[in-house]
Amino acid sequence: MEQDTQPENLTEQVRNIAEISGGLLAQAEVFLSSLLRPWNAYQIGIAVALFALAHLLGKVFAPRLHDWMRMREGWPKWRLRVLVVIHRRMRMIFFVILIWMVVLVMREVTWPSRSYLLGVIANLALAWMIVAFATRLIANPLVRGVVRYGAWIWITLRILGVTDEAETLLDSAAINLGEMRLSLWLVIQGVFILGLFFFVARFVSQTTAARIENSKDISPSMRVLVVKVLQAVLYAFALFAGLSAVGFDLTGLAFLSGAIGLGLGFGLQKVVSNLVSGVIILLDKSIKPGDVISLGDTFGWINSLGARYVSVVTRDGKEYLIPNEDLITGQVVNWSHSNEFVRLDIFFGTSYTDDPHKVRALAIEAAKGCERVLSYRAPVCHIVGFGDSSVDYILRFWIRDPTGGLTNIRGNVYLALWDAFKEHGISIPFPQREVKLLNDPAPMPDLPPGST
């Protein structure tokens, strides 16, 4: 019985679509034939002439507006963005102004039927312009394009008065999935409602995230965690609320969730591991944005904490995306975990003929003279051994800005040591070796003059 009813339902749907399409085509034929009437033809001619005049006015005033905008560099960004939108829509703005002026004048001096078509065109132009300006608030280009063209189509159908026929036509194109009837109209409603819910969720999450990130009472890692949890909750709520609003049975998601869980168990272990590791990193506060870390050969500061990876920027401008799992399972050196102070060591040696007390004092004073070396954590210098050619020393000093680099400050201290030792006559010895070659012939003895 089910196999017999399915073809009948399909035939009935095709018949309904054909009837509705025929009705819309008949209305379109009537509308097109009405355009050939004299009082409609001249209205179309007036609209075309006004569009050409608006195009010329846009060509004249657009460069002047652009030059005037370039002289307003101190203005807020939102004002400049509004001016940019106006600059790009100059032709549409002039056309809307001109056609509404003509419509208002014609309604006063002639019969309403003589300006009816111009009024429809004016309403369409004004609605399209408002949609074009309003959709500029949407940052995503794809979403902005979908919303813009969808709004234009709906407004056009609304102004022409064929929304009921279009809705019936879209609703008649449907398929049955079990007990659920999925029509094209339902899909369009779902896309619109879900887009609206996601837009609201995105706006709320961005606004709340900005306030959380500006709060000084919350640690940086906790800010990131709160923002991530808030975004997940808001987007999940937007998804389920949107599906419920269009009448989607949420119990059908049980199978989908089971399939997703099976896929996670087999093929997405690394992805899940990185996600869980990211949550652990945020909870235990082992690293946070701004920390200076070393992981293997990578040395840099943390730029951001993501759901799957951590962004580390090095001194040479490279940005490494390190998976969260590597930070959990590997050894990480956090130079600024509990505080920003970092102690650096450099080694050097001087001649045995130099006074070690004087060498130590000169080394400490030279380190204090460097810009980034902390004075309230005074440098220290110690003898660490008596080498083959020199007395060996270690010089220790503290800095509190490891993001400024470690190699450069070591180089500056070494240069300060060189200048101080050269000024006070302290020598830095270097190893000297005497090399003898095996089986080297003995040197000839010196013979007295005149001997053969």
Task: Provide an overview of this structure.
The structure is a single chain. With 452 residues, the chain is an alpha+beta fold. It folds into 4 domains: 167 residues, no CATH class; 77 residues, no CATH class; 48 residues, SH3 type barrels (Roll), CATH 2.30.30; 82 residues, Alpha-Beta Plaits (2-Layer Sandwich), CATH 3.30.70. 60% of the residues lie in helices and 13% in strands. It is built from 14 helices and 10 strands. The strands form 3 sheets. The chain has a 5-stranded antiparallel β-sheet. A 3-stranded antiparallel β-sheet has the order 8-10-9, with helices on one face. A hairpin with a 3-residue loop joins strand 4 and strand 5. Helix 2 runs antiparallel to helix 3 and helix 5 runs antiparallel to helix 6. The N terminus is likely disordered.
List the helices and strands and how they pair.
Blueprint: H1 2-35, H2 38-70, H3 77-88, H4 90-109, H5 116-134, H6 141-160, H7 163-172, E1 174-177, E2 180-183, H8 184-213, H9 220-245, H10 253-267, H11 269-284, E3 292-295, E4 298-305, E5 309-314, E6 319-323, H12 324-329, E7 333-334, E8 342-350, H13 356-368, E9 380-386, E10 391-399, H14 407-423
Antiparallel strand pairs: 1-2, 3-4, 3-7, 4-5, 5-6, 8-10, 9-10
Keywords, separated by commas or semicolons:
disordered N terminus; 10 strands; three-stranded antiparallel sheet; 452 residues; alpha+beta; elongated; SH3 type barrels; five-stranded antiparallel sheet
